[in-house]
Amino acid sequence: MFKKILVPVDGSETSWRAMDEAKKLAEKFGGSLVIVNVIQPYNSAALLAVPLDQATITQGNNELAKIGDKVLAAAKEKMADFKGEVQFDLEVGHPSERIIVVSKDKDCDSIVIGSRGLSGIAEFFLGSVSSKVAQYATLPVLIVK
Amino acid sequence: MFKKILVPVDGSDSSWRALAAAKEMAEKFGGDLVVVTVTQPIDHLNLLVVRREFQDTLAELKEVSEKIISLAKMKLTGYEKKVDYVIKEGHPAECIVALAKEKECDSIVIGRRGLSGVEEFFLGSVSSNVAQQSVVPVVIVR
Fold first, then answer.
1. B39 and which of A85, A88, B64, B65 could share a cystine (Cβ 3.0–4.6 Å)?
2. Burial (CB count within 10 angstroms: exposed 0-12, middle 13-18, buried 19+), residue A11
3. pTM, to two decimals
């Protein structure tokens, strides 16, 4: 456990705390880290409500990709003093689904995730992404508060 | 983190895996463990129907909890740091979260599913509630 930790980050304070704890765990267990940010592009449901032309959709998704890159750049800075191996991955899709897929693809043995993210919706104590990851992951999951 | 880990156990394989994981983490971080099992008494509705049998069953449940703690002790032989063993009575998730505060634990390591037998999707209701309500980090172990 904790030899290859997947850490989803979204730029929220909680996700940075999660990344920090993952760093400590990786240091103790001699493990490596995979830092992932998932951008959720405009999906078909949103499009039905507010029909957008392709150009606007593409532009919107490009903006989202830029934000994703910024989040990972910030993560890189925070990881500068980490002595082990660390990978940074930008994914596109449904957050909890992508997180679980990447955890398998990258052969991670654990996931460290914040309890809440940026969503702004005051969900009770545990955000929807963290909640779904905790439910559906087949790996150990550390939920950082 | 992981200087004082609360580990709820219920005798299920999942909970023993959680205990093994917690032991490993406590050893790496030089921490102590608090092992708890929660006896959930039969709820009041059943009491009205089968009053007399309830007394026996509660005693049996308590015996089971004591057996679970003995098993936990066996599994932790050789563990060099402090371990506290606690038996609580009541609603499992609530007792677990409350005990974490009471004992000033800095983390909880819990199994994904327990003994309940109810085929909940992937994550048992107690683990799910603990993950939600806990104010300290929670590790969910398979």
1. B65
2. middle
3. 0.85
